[in-house]
Specification:
The longest helix has 12 residues. The strands form two sheets. The chain has a four-stranded mixed beta sheet, with no helix packed on it. The protein has one domain: Immunoglobulin-like. It is built from one helix and eight strands, in the order H-E-E-E-E-E-E-E-E. It is mostly beta strands. The protein binds copper (II) ion. The site of copper (II) ion has 5 residues, from loops. This is Cupredoxin family copper-binding protein. InterPro entries: Amicyanin, Cupredoxin, EfeO_Cupredoxin, ET_Amicyanin. It comes from Mesorhizobium argentiipisi. Keywords: Signal.
Amino acid sequence: MRTMLTLALLAFAMPAFAANHAVQIKDMKFHPAKISVAVGDTVTFTNADSKTHTATADDGSFDTGQLAKGKRAKVKISAAGAHPFHCAIHSSMTGTVTAK
Ligand SMILES: [Cu+2]
């Protein structure tokens, strides 16, 4: 009985649907550069630029790896808080994913 109750509470605590958020990479910038998500959501980074880029969290919590022109990668945001990220190739390219 206790186990069933615990499982029911765990199921209730899980979000029913994780949202996906889109970030475009274009003209050596992330668009948008700052996004707010819920913990468990995903972010799809799409490289619409002519150069290869990455979206790499400063805290190591996510990394798209190298995205050539036209490629995309989906990452999951698992931890709450602000996750600044950058392009591992171009250090001037930065953004922040904030998860609540
Ligand atoms: Cu880059």
